[in-house]
User: What shape does this take?
Amino acid sequence: MKKLLYTVVLASVLGACSYETEGAKTDKVESKGEKEEHTLSKEESRYVDLIKKGDYQTVIAECEKLKDENHQTFRNIAAAFKTYNELKDERFSDHTGELNYNAIRIYLNSATFTPAEITGDMNELRRNVNKKLSFYATNAKKDTNKKIEIGMTKKEVLDRWGRPEAIHNKSEINGESEAWTYMQGIISFKGETVESVQEIRGI
Assistant: This one.
C-alpha cells in the first residue's frame, strides 16, 4: 500500500491530478513509437525481457540510478505495469483509485519510445487504464455514501452507486439472481429488487 501511495505522491508532483477522459490524448505512447525508431541496445533488450517476465522492480531499481532519457523510459514503463498489477489486488476509494490509474497513464505517456516487443502489452494496458478512468468519470457525480437498502430497484441502485464494476448471474430454483460488485460492497438482486447488501469496510 505504501508503494501505491508513493505512486500517488509522484503523480501529484508531476501534475497528475487532472486526467483526460477516454479517447482524449490516450495514444501518446503509441504515436511516439510510430514517429521514432529506436534500436534496442543489449541492455535495453534485457529490460524488455524482464518486463515481459513481470520482474518490474529490477528494471525500476537499475534505471532509477541513471538519469538519461532511455533509462527513464524503461523505468516508467516498468512502473506502469507494476502499479497496475498491484492495483488489481487492492481495493480503493474512487478518489485514490483514480489517482493511481492517472499515475499509470503519466508513466506511459512519459515514455519517449515504445519497444516493439511490448507494444501490444502497452497498448492493452493503456486501454485498461482508459476504461477504468472512464468508469470513474461516469460515476463521479454518484453519491456512493448513500445507503443501499433491501427492496430498492436496480434503477435506484444505479442512481446512487452508478454502474457496477462486475455483474455475476446465477440460476436458482426460484429464478435468476444477480450480484453487482462495487468497490464499496456487493449487492445481490432477486429479480429487479435488492435482496441483500454486503458492504466492504475500511476502503
Summary: The radius of gyration is 20 Å.
